[in-house]
Design brief:
The complex is a heterodimer of chains A (about 250) and B (about 475).
Chain A: H1 2-9, E1 10-21, E2 24-35, E3 39-43, H2 50-58, E4 63-72, E5 75-76, H3 82-88, E6 90-93, H4 105-117, H5 123-136, H6 154-168, E7 172-176, H7 184-197, E8 203-207, E9 221-226, E10 229-234, H8 237-245, H9 247-251
Parallel strand pairs in A: 3-8, 3-9, 6-7, 7-8
Antiparallel strand pairs in A: 1-2, 1-4, 4-5, 9-10
Helix pairs in contact in A: 4-6, 6-7
Chain B: E1 30-31, H1 38-47, H2 52-67, E2 89-90, H3 104-112, H4 115-122, E3 125-130, E4 133-139, H5 141-145, E5 149-152, H6 153-159, H7 161-167, H8 178-186, E6 191-195, E7 205-210, E8 217-218, E9 221-226, E10 231-239, E11 247-249, E12 252-257, E13 262-270, E14 275-278, E15 280-285, E16 290-297, E17 302-305, E18 308-311, E19 317-326, E20 331-334, E21 337-340, E22 346-355, E23 360-369, E24 376-386, E25 392-401, E26 406-416, H9 419-426, H10 432-448, H11 453-467
Parallel strand pairs in B: 3-7, 6-9, 7-10, 8-11, 9-12, 10-13, 11-14, 12-15, 13-16, 14-17, 15-18, 16-19, 17-20, 18-21, 19-22, 20-23, 21-23, 22-24, 23-25, 24-26
Antiparallel strand pairs in B: 1-2, 3-4, 5-6
Helix pairs in contact in B: 1-2, 2-8, 6-7, 9-10, 10-11
Classes of the chains: A alpha/beta (about 250), B alpha/beta (about 475).
Chain lengths: ~250, ~475
């Protein structure tokens, strides 16, 4: 009875995951469970495997699972294609979003929305929603007609990622270093966008190595990823310990 | 379901080109024997009832053809044997001024290609050539009242003999290269356009060239004169169904843009993959005149096509926008040439190419700036996208700059679709196939914008067809 309630609430379950890139093993037996509506933070030093985790969750073909399982809504998705994962409700906010010339942000998002929902969408309604979300993120309207991320500044690219998040409304959002390279004002705006997305149904994984974004979002769980494994999990208070004493303090 | 193997193995050797590949039964009222002899050239001229000077022009061209060698650069064309080409095929009809009068099978062909509909909706005049002769020509009355002339070349030789005699193959002389000489000897069909001084033709004229006969050549001649201060947008479309024997297209386009005039010349060549497309196009631009080329090369087995702009008068301008798409078995050697022969002249060349399935797309261009042509400005930008490792792309820009007071920019980029970009798009729910198509469409978008609408749609469809089922 209790177990089935837990299962119903479980969105993502990573079991004993080993992942390599080329010949290099990066994740070495990672375990992580995420329930609906939770915000998880993953911190850790450079090279610990944070971005690898983000990429393997989304299915980047450059990364290879050698052992273990990723379960999303009770289904093992180890071999699932990237677009199929997106359709199930997964989303990755890229650390370095790609620039795609020749397709406008608006047209792209409409195609993506249609692909994910697998039905036509009403143009006028879509335009209205897009305008609202852009306003929330303090993006100039003209960006909708610009080519996807082309010539966007670092901050604009990250806002574009969050805009995509809000339009596509995934169940699981993985934010890979979304706060890096942003000034204070931009961090606030991005945080506002992420808060807008947060709900009882939606879960968020925030990957970061500083707490810029975290000041504005209250994570439910904090995990420390070191050398391909989660070595410690806890609540928000863990962040303060790291802030004051560094990663070494937690290792022990 | 989601584990279903979506790895559909549908690699296609040659795409289904739909309406372009529908062949008509080979009907004709007259054709010459295969090959190229003085007898054949005389026969063509006689059939056309030409004035003596034209017969002599043809024979002189034949003489030049026999003396000139094949180009020693570019794609291999050894496979093209003129002894196997029928240079003149007269369709089963004379030229008509109403579609109703055009024989049913020919009319059907042009209807499938959307010509009568486009004429009705968005064109000021249409010429339609089937094999060696023009079968339909029409111009809206209000334009002929203003003195605009738009007719087939045969009629022009008869009715505007002086103009033709003074201009025919003066911009592209038969001595230019072997296929220009061939054209001079066996040319047939094509359009003559004359826009009087100051006349602005508000909607485009379009000529469409369809080659239906297997093993034949098409050698249409287009001569356009845009007088002082006038404007014209001319659209040229070409296609042919696929045959197992080689076909040859060696057309010639001569454009004369007078002082302060502007001519926009848009082309989509969508030949079948058994076609040698060795076409010559050239514009002569006088003071403050503008030539704008928009050129799409999709079909053919081999293309050698380098539209040239000679900026003869001060302040003359040339714009060239080109897109080339080379698929399996295709070698498309295309580009643009500009000669800045006067001061304060400007040129702007912007080309993109795509190659896939072992196709070869080469940009070959030339920029010449003469000693006296000071204060010239030229920018050249070529971008190539290769869709797989078997395809090839090259850039061969030649520059001959003979004075220092010039401003020249040149940029060439050759790239592939990055895995990261595909991953990014797929992470938003877009399939791999669609992600690729999206990137390719995005790549050509700046060019597509310049094409007439129907052709932009056609290009998008073609990209879709070419990319379908190639993943895996």
């Amino acid at each position: 009875m209790i177990r089935s309630m837990i299962m119903e609430n479980r969105l993502l379950s990573i079991k004993n995951l080993y992942v390599k890139v080329g010949d290099k093993e990066i994740l070495k037996g990672l375990n992580l469970d995420i329930n609906k509506g939770e915000v998880h933070v993953i911190m850790g030093p450079n090279g610990a495997g944070k971005s690898t985790l983000a990429n393997i969750l989304m299915g980047n073909p450059k990364y290879e699972i050698t052992e273990g399982e990723i379960e999303f809504q009770g289904q093992i998705i180890n071999d699932m294609k990237v677009d199929e994962r997106a359709k199930l409700g997964m989303f990755l906010s890229f650390q370095y979003p790609e620039e795609i010339p020749g397709i406008t942000l608006e047209n792209f998002l409409r195609s993506a929305k249609m692909a994910i929902e697998d039905k036509p969408i009403k143009v006028i309604e879509f335009k209205k929603t897009l305008k609202e979300k852009m306003k929330l993120l303090e993006m100039k309207e003209e960006y909708a007609q610009r080519y996807l991320n082309e010539g966007f500044s670092g901050g604009e690219k990250k806002k574009s990622e969050i805009l995509q998040l809000l339009i596509l409304n995934p169940k699981l959002a993985i934010l890979d270093e979304t706060d890096s390279g942003l000034d204070v004002d931009a961090v606030k705006i991005v945080a506002k966008g992420v808060r807008e997305h947060k709900s009882e149904e939606n879960s968020i994984i925030i990957i970061t190595h500083h707490n810029n974004l975290l000041e504005y979002l209250n994570p439910d769980h904090v995990h420390f990823l070191v050398d391909g494994r989660i070595i410690k999990s806890g609540d928000e208070s863990l962040i303060d310990i790291v802030e004051k004493e560094g990663f070494e303090a937690i290792k022990n | 379901m989601v584990f279903m193997d979506t790895n559909r193995k549908t690699y296609v050797e040659d795409i289904e080109r739909g309406i372009y590949d529908i062949k008509n039964e080979f009907r004709y009222s007259y054709k010459v024997k295969k090959g190229l002899t003085e007898e054949i050239v005389r026969e063509i001229s006689e059939k056309k009832n030409e004035p003596k000077w034209m017969t002599e022009f043809r024979l002189k061209s034949l003489d030049i053809y026999n003396k000139l060698g094949l180009p020693v650069w570019g794609p291999n064309i050894d496979d093209l044997d003129i002894e196997n080409i029928v240079t003149y095929v007269k369709p089963n009809t004379d030229m008509k001024y109403s579609w109703e009068d055009v024989p049913e099978d020919i009319k059907e062909t042009f209807t499938r290609l959307g010509i009568p509909e486009a004429e009705h909706k968005s064109l000021a005049g249409v010429g339609a050539q089937y094999d060696s002769e023009v079968v339909y020509h029409n111009l809206k009355d209000y334009l002929s009242m203003k003195g605009v002339i738009y007719t087939d070349m045969e009629t022009a030789v008869r009715e505007y003999e002086d103009i033709i005699k003074n201009h025919f193959m003066t911009v592209v002389p038969p001595s230019d290269h072997k296929f220009a000489a061939l054209h001079g000897a066996v040319w047939s069909g094509g359009s003559f356009v004359y826009i009087p001084e100051g006349i602005q033709v508000d909607i485009p004229l379009q000529s469409y060239f369809r080659l239906n006969a297997p093993g034949a050549g098409q050698f249409e001649h287009t001569l356009i004169i845009v007088e002082k201060g006038a404007f014209l947008h001319f659209i040229e479309g070409c296609s042919a169904p696929k045959y197992s024997v080689n076909n040859l297209h060696a057309g010639c386009v001569e454009l004369i843009v007078k002082e302060g005039a502007r001519l926009r010349y848009s082309t989509i060549e969508n030949w079948s993959k058994n076609m040698y497309n060795l076409n010559t196009k050239r514009a002569l631009v006088e003071k403050d005149g503008t030539i704008e080329w928009v050129s799409g090369s999709f079909g053919s087995k081999v293309s050698m096509l380098y539209p040239m702009s000679i900026l003869k008068g001060e302040g003359a301008r040339a714009e060239f926008t080109g897109i080339t798409f080379a698929g399996n078995g295709q070698y498309l050697d295309t580009g643009a040439k500009v000669v800045h022969a006067a001061p304060y002249t400007t040129s702007n060349i912007n080309t993109k190419s795509i190659s896939k399935d072992g196709g070869v797309a080469v940009y070959r261009g030339a920029l010449v700036i003469t000693e006296n042509a000071h204060h010239c400005k030229s920018t050249v930008s070529c971008e190539s996208l290769m869709l797989d490792n078997r395809s090839r792309s090259d850039t061969v820009p030649v520059m001959d700059i003979r004075n220092d007071e010039v401003d020249i920019g040149h940029e060439a980029k050759i790239g592939r679709i990055s895995d990261e970009a595909i991953f990014y798009l797929m992470s938003r729910g877009i399939s791999e196939e669609e992600a690729r198509a999206m990137i390719v469409r995005g790549f050509v978008e700046p060019i597509a914008k310049e094409l007439p609408l129907e052709y932009a749609v056609e290009m998008n469809n073609l990209i879709k067809l070419e990319l379908e089922g190639t993943i895996g």
